[in-house]
Design brief:
This protein is an alpha/beta fold and 302 residues long. The chain has helices at 8-15, 246-253, 259-275, 281-293; strands at residues 17-25, 30-40, 45-54, 58-68, 75-84, 89-97, 103-112, 116-124, 129-139, 143-153, 158-168, 172-182, 187-196, 203-213, 219-228, 233-243. Helix 2 packs across helix 3. The protein is globular.
């Protein structure tokens, strides 16, 4: 479902292909859990290709860890495609935590075949620079998508996050949220596009991008866009940027909280809103532990 003509990043990644993995799940397999760990080693420069095929009438939980073994500089390109058969449900959890001296490029495309429930959770904590391009093509009828993107950046980290979801069948819904916390001089750019093709009916979708700044020197841009070519559609989008300013802190401190408690309450409420969307409790605990290890000690691990 991906070709070199899709983007210059896909073309470049394919030309430097070093390794790959194929996961094939036959029709009617039932319930299955798959763990994939991708370890980037020793000044690696190249790309990794993942192909996942899920047959009809199957429930798949897939957990993908991307990490590195040391702090030397690496360039890692990841190309992933997933095709989901009819009447199959997928929980797709991706966790990127490579060292902050390396650069990470990922293009992922997911395609449905109808009567599917999809939960796609994309968590990013590592890399000096990251460019992630997630594309979801919802083919045929009765597809429900819940997408949650979560990030925490600090120091001089820079992220480009692109999410493109396309409705191509009737009776579909999509709930897409990208949310993160920035600190120090880090920068994040989010561009989301929600597209509804022509002559579709009963579409209900939402797209949002939200960021919280812990430092006055960090920067974020959130640009959610809608492209609607049908009439029987309920759709919306939103973007927000929240900063720790003196007025908000004063208001909360006037209610009896210390300055540290006020900051913790704001950040805790902000990040919990995203984590709560994730269904898997084990994955949620993992996210919180890694946020603490990255220095976000306002997050409580339970």
């Amino acid at each position: 479902v991906l070709s070199p003509s899709d983007s210059i990043f896909v073309s470049y990644g394919i030309s430097f292909l070093k390794a790959g993995i194929l996961i094939y799940i036959p029709q009617g397999y039932g319930n299955l859990k798959v763990n994939v760990r991708k370890k980037i080693k020793n000044s690696f420069i190249g790309s990794f290709y993942s192909m996942v095929y899920v047959g009809n009438d199957t429930n798949l939980n897939i957990y993908e860890d991307v990490f590195s073994d040391n702090i030397d500089r690496k360039f890692f390109f990841e190309i992933s495609e997933m095709v989901i058969g009819e009447n199959s449900n997928v929980f797709y959890n991706v966790f990127q935590n490579i060292d902050v001296f390396s650069e990470y490029f990922a293009t992922r495309k997911l395609k449905t075949n109808g009567k599917n429930n999809i939960e796609f959770n994309d968590v990013s904590l590592g890399a000096a620079y990251q460019r992630v391009d997630d594309r979801i093509s919802m083919e045929n009828e009765h597809v429900e998508l819940k997408y949650t993107g979560l990030y925490f950046t600090k120091d001089n980290q820079k992220y480009d996050i692109l999410v493109n979801a396309r409705h191509r069948g009737t009776n579909q819904g999509a709930d897409i949220i990208v949310k993160g916390i920035l600190d120090d001089k880090s920068k994040v750019y989010f561009n989301g596009v929600l597209k509804v093709d022509k002559k579709l009916k009963r579409i209900n979708s939402f797209l949002g991008g939200h960021s919280l700044h812990l430092s006055p020197e960090c920067k974020s841009d959130s640009i959610p866009s809608l492209e609607i070519d049908s009439f029987d559609v309920k759709s919306g989008h939103a973007a927000s940027l929240t900063q720790f300013d003196e007025e908000k802190l004063f208001y909360m401190m006037s209610r009896g909280l210390s300055e540290e408690e006020a900051k913790k309450a704001i950040a805790q409420g902000f990040i919990e809103g995203a984590i709560r969307r994730i269904s898997d409790d084990e994955f949620k605990v993992k996210i919180k532990k890694h946020l603490v290890s990255k220095g976000l000690d306002i997050v409580e691990v339970s």
